[in-house]
Amino acid sequence: MNEATSPSGRPIALSCGEPAGIGPEIAARAWDQLRESCPFVWIGDPDHLPAGTPVQLLETPAGAQRVAGHALPVLPLEFGGDAVPGKPDPRNATGVIRAIEYGVELVRGGQCAALCTAPIHKKALIDGAGFAHPGHTEFLAAIAGRRRVVMMLASPQLRVVPTTIHIALADVPRTLTPALLRETIEITDTALRDQFGIAEPRLAVTGLNPHAGEGGAMGHEEMNWIAPLIAEMEKQGYALTGPHPADTLFHKAARVNYDAAIAMYHDQALIPIKTLDFDRGVNVTLGLPFIRTSPDHGTAFDIAGQGKANPTSLVEALKLAQRMAAVA
Questions:
Q1: For residue 5, how many C-alpha atoms fall within 13 Å in the half-sphere facing its CB?
Q2: Is the pLDDT of residue 151 over 50?
Q3: Would the annotation count 266 as a binding residue?
Q4: 136 is in an annotated binding site
Q5: Can you give the residue range of the structural domain that contains 323?
Q6: Does 169 lie in the same domain as 80?
Q7: What distance in Å separates the CA atoms of residue 29 and residue 9, rounded to the nearest whole number?
């Protein structure tokens, strides 16, 4: 089977993200690189795409495979404002939100194989549409009716999952609980089986403290509950190791021993993957009833419209969504 052609022939749905950011230009460049090898349909206002982009407007995603070789397939939506690079317009907020919702509808309705999302700008969504969610991921969880989802950062070299995410470091010890860690492990294990095709996922769990507490000399969480939880879940059939000192878990020889690493907090997870493979990292949301990926970067207003934006992370996000769809 061609790596980029899913058995169903369904395209990936790509929501436009913030029109004033780099989303439109990297979408056009990703199409130019992938074309029919990884067909996707862009959801947004075609007037927001870079001038000269070959575009084919569609009424449904069904024609994306047919036209992707010579034009970017677009499902057009009306937006309230223009796209001025680097200057988000709150009038576009409703359109940005609708593009995400439409993408979810297409995937859940079976017309698209997976959802890939370009970066959004939360303040513009709040100012223009009263957006009430902490971010993209939480909005998707609310649409899907899921209480909790898990963020994975994935690249060809490493998959890593932070148990706690966008909170202050001082808040991590009280937020990190046995129930939260257990749920994170369970969601990750299920996703690796169902969406990545790994029959027996191997998960390595970090400690919270330096040297994983070093026997209580640098903290007691590892001894008090992290190690006991790992041992309990091993008895239940999970392939777990740890708690590992985070500073020795991510070098090349260590990485061959696990399929994903479960970290305790944001930077413990993201620093290794961004150091190892900055451009090819992909954000994957685990625990949704559909596949969702996104590039691992933001709107980059400072370089928007200047032709400097690197589409590699978006290309990798689209390709990963396609591979996951072929497994699921």
A1: 9
A2: yes
A3: yes
A4: yes
A5: 1-148+280-328
A6: no
A7: 22
